[in-house]
Amino acid sequence: MDGKCYQLSDLPVRMFKSRCRNTAFCSRDAFAAPAQKMTENQTQPRKTSRSQMFSAKCRGQKGETAANSQFNPSLTDRPNSLQISTGREGGAVPHVKENIPHRSYSPLAYMKIYSTRRSRTAEVFGQFGGEHCQGPIGERESCTTNANCSTASSTVCSDSQFQCDSGTCIRKRLMCNGDLDCEDGSDEPYDCDPENKPCGTRVLDTNEQGRTAGYGINILGAGPRMNPFNNDYFNGRCDRLRNPNTEQNDRLPWNVGVLHYQTLVEETVSREIYENSHTLVRQMLKEMTSTIDVGLSFKFQPSEASLSKDSGSGGVSGDASIGFNKETVIKDMTEHTTSYTKNKSFMRVRGTVEMSTYRMRSRDLQVADEFLDHVKYLPLEYEKGIYFAFLEDYGTHYTKNGKSGGEYELVYVLNQDTIKKKHVTDRKIQECIKLGIEGGITAGDVTVRGHVKPDDCNTVTNPTTEESEGKAVVDKVMTSVKGGTLVTAVAMKTKVNKEGVLDLVTFQDWARSIASAPALIKSEPEPIYMLIPLEMPSANVRISNLKQAIADYVAEYSVCKCKPCHNGGTLTLLDGKCICLCSNLFEGMACQSFKGDNTVPPVERPPIAHEGNWSCWSSWSSCTNGKRTRTRSCNTDGVPGAPCRGDISSEEHC
């Protein structure tokens, strides 16, 4: 970018490619050469209402718009000094080291006046001691111009409809009924005296299960930051449902077709002890994989600036997810491998409280005005940076059917030397660490019963017994909590860290709080582009672009950009870093070292089948006879002759 503003046909958007090397560190925080200095001193834009948010912006057929957007970076007058606002507090891009080679820019697309955009890609992720390759894919820079801005056509309402100030169309019979059928409230003017309220004189509220229904899902694991639905819309109906937790009637939002309350309490203890951390992490990651096949590729942290400065992260997961999620446990175990390797084993306890199940309507879903504004903000000419930001805000999919409640997981790090010294069996450890919960939740009260633990469990679980009775079997307990309030989650973690086990009282306090802060614990996904109204101008173009964006998003953060592991190790990508998860017999960053070589006497190395790693898919071929194809190759770098399981090509109808 040269600091000038261009007409639509003149403004290039370019892609920057940076190689994230497997030595030293990765750089994806440089958008131009020479390296830029980036600071955190950003001016936060003034907060505006949803109805005002986009009123000052000039939208056009080819893309995005004018000044006063939350996307505006702060620019200095110096050519080598660039400040970028990520849209999230404390999220400024760090200073970039200057010894990374830069690739040249290549023309990609053309954007509208008033702003320029460009995006980049990672060719190789950090591996074998390299750093995490993270940072935003897209960058936006604002500019000024005297050129006229063409305005996109707006939705035209029919004669039987009322047009809200936001542009949304509702039926005229919904006006002045006491409900905010227009999200901006324009259907309920101040001089309106509602006479035909859907619920009459009764005042009914929705609950958290209804308010958070339909929350987004990111198939790579990150928690979406915003809900696409307007779950305060009732379409003039007063559908009521008895809430067993409060013994009161709740009003059901229009978007929720079915909501059932059914409390199920379940606890499971791993039947076997995991002999190393990699075996446990592999199992946990497989449980987190989406029903959509993306392999073991995960991106827990969003990297693109949010389209809304007011967005949070993972709001459906309840307050307790902050700092207590499973992703934190997994990253801790993979980044501090040496702490969990020597003479350590693992056992885990998982507990689930299922509160309700819901199913969204199959048609006429009411989405939020802010969601529609952000859809309209997407340029018609595809540019992956801003489309990635949209996906990280709302998810690649939304929840078509879901189950809400709470769940916790305790990972016990066991000291094998102490286990052998005290002759403790696996069965004994299981009996001591499990809570043994059974029961239910009714009228906001939790009724559970726990099993009776053996008398000598303190010597197994309590870390404070080290001085008086020798070192405890449990070295450490890692806790993840999803759902419930932050206060009760902290109490759970404190109790477990102090005594090594969870007690019934602490569990009950947490379970009671789930009703006010439920989490999405199971879901059936539906693509997010299915929520774009077909009557929206240029809807089909944006739907097609979002389909492309989801495919590009999965391809951008794919394990195909990693080198294969040795000796049958499982390859996974976690937040921009390739990690080899080794079997019990091998260790090292590439699983290259046989543990038996270090024993006395050395153990004979068993025959192990190496495995290659598939390269990324090629682009689709042109459509011929209603079909198109793509290919990939088997990467055997470091493991010559190793095979790859799967097909070398794929085809689809077109």
Q: What is this structure's SSE topology?
A:
Blueprint: E1 12-18, H1 50-53, E2 106-110, E3 115-122, E4 138-142, E5 161-163, E6 169-171, H2 208-211, E7 216-217, E8 240-243, E9 248-251, E10 256-269, H3 277-288, E11 297-298, H4 326-335, E12 344-360, H5 369-377, H6 384-394, E13 397-415, H7 416-422, H8 426-433, E14 438-442, E15 445-449, H9 458-461, H10 466-469, E16 474-482, H11 486-499, H12 504-513, E17 519-527, H13 539-556, E18 570-574, E19 577-581, E20 586-587, E21 593-594, E22 613-614, E23 627-631, E24 634-635, E25 649-653
Parallel strand pairs: 1-3, 11-18
Antiparallel strand pairs: 1-2, 3-4, 5-6, 7-13, 8-9, 10-12, 12-13, 13-16, 13-17, 14-15, 18-19, 20-21, 22-24, 23-25
